[in-house]
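Appendix B, example 12.
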Amino acid sequence: MLIRMTNEPEQQIGVGTPDAFQRLWTPHRMAYIQGENKPSGSGAGDGCPFCTIPSKSDEDGLIIARGESVYAVLNLYPYNGGHCMIVPFRHVADYTELNDPETAELAVFTKRAMKALRKASGAHGFNIGMNQGADAGAGIAAHLHQHIVPRWGGDTNFMPVVGHTKVLPQLLADTRRMLAEAWSDA
């Protein structure tokens, strides 16, 4: 991706040519663009990442905390640093399919995630929500998941607007460790 900060005409920049940091490489986004880790079908056994994540270690699965019926996990393709999700262990697609204990624990985990994010990162606000179905924007529509995106004053700068790219200043493993430590007090 080449980002121009001026109105000067675009030039071809070769390997080794100084470019004054006009490029922002985000190769990890290609996995998302190409649909890596997307299920092949709608069933629990169809490669659903939300069904396989709990079988991994917390570190390998980017799991922040586990409950009886839900778990908190970092988003592998975050919109903002600390972007996490609350996911039921049970493979259900729709919020109305959750039973009462699952619904209650999802709400409790949402509150704890907010508290942990405030403690660990000083989040000023949050975007919280679920996309129900592919037509509503769910990337993995077959397995319900609630997004919790921390926000800070001024966190939307020119990069998402001009470059269609979000700059994240921390590795996911470091973010997971920081939130897991803050979770116990949340």
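Residues 1-9 have pLDDT under 50 and may be disordered. The first helix runs from residue 29 to 33.
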